[in-house]
Amino acid sequence: MKLRDEYRSPDLAHSLAQKIARMVTRPWTLMEVCGGQTHAIVRYGIDRLLPPTVSLVHGPGCPVCVTPVEYVDKAIELALRREIILCSFGDMLRVPGSHGDLLAVKARGADVRVVYSPLDALTIAKANPQREVMFFAVGFETTAPANAMAAYRARQEGLQNFSMLVSHVLVPPALRAILDAPTNHIQGFLAAGHVCTIMGFEEYEPIAAHYHVPIVVTGFEPVDILEGIYLCVRQLEAGRAEVENQYARSVRRAGNLPAQKMMREVFQVRPRRWRGLGDIGESGLGLAETYAELDAERRFGQVDLNDEQSEDCMSGLVLRGERKPTECPAFGGRCTPEHPLGVTMVSTEGACAAYYRYGRLRVESKS
Q1: What class does CATH assign to 1-360?
Q2: Quick one: DSSP state of residue 100?
């Protein structure tokens, strides 16, 4: 049996679901942090295999979704300048700013280019020395090493026309913010396996101990997720709160040390605003002082943060795990992937997009 087939085995999945059902004695609420895990849960109906006493809620693990609207507005402002070529991954193009998105300004003639690696933006900068090339660098720790490498290479090669608009965020501070919230009802977490492939899981251990919540590093296939749920519920039932590694085939406790070294070389930790969660101290990455010449904010002007929040949808509540997508009155009617009101319907990793794509178009109850 191939590895992927093994981790998608219906027999293994049903066996794990039965083990969970036999073990659970009281209600538990778990949050999967990663948007990729959310899509797998909804696509394969993993939540429907679970007993009614085990509830899954969806966290802020969609990097596109948590990018502040002000950074999207800044990217749009820069894209409209004739001297700038803006490079971005494709999933950022339809993320709504205050008055439109990057796809709309591209349709109006702005030079917005989709790239598949930040190194592609370096190639574009070399081919267009008379233009300013800016890369919109967003994401969690997963994409930070590649973006750091692009900055490192640009500096090594002396590229004068390359810059980065950086809005990187870090997972552990977001977990602390969720657990500190007075409305928190999360009792355990499934941590994102790809983030931990880079960072390891040592930094989760103080969180588990301080808040007394189990955290299970989990992969993305159906059996991965069900095994992660099983391990998390087993801890809860036993009164334990530790970090366990379900995704041992990819994750080591210390993570990827060369990738972390590259991140430390290029970035420094700083406060960051999250869409849907607000300001979280020491929760982001920005370019270090030694790379200041590549900082698009220093080159073209700072991003102006404000406290205005859209009231058009419940995406913020969805990102905090306080609402399911189907609880939003706009979901599936006024808000669809073709005409999204919020980021969780735009992104391929957004919870609302997952519910819409896989037919969860009505409020579902386990009662």
Answers
A1: alpha beta
A2: B
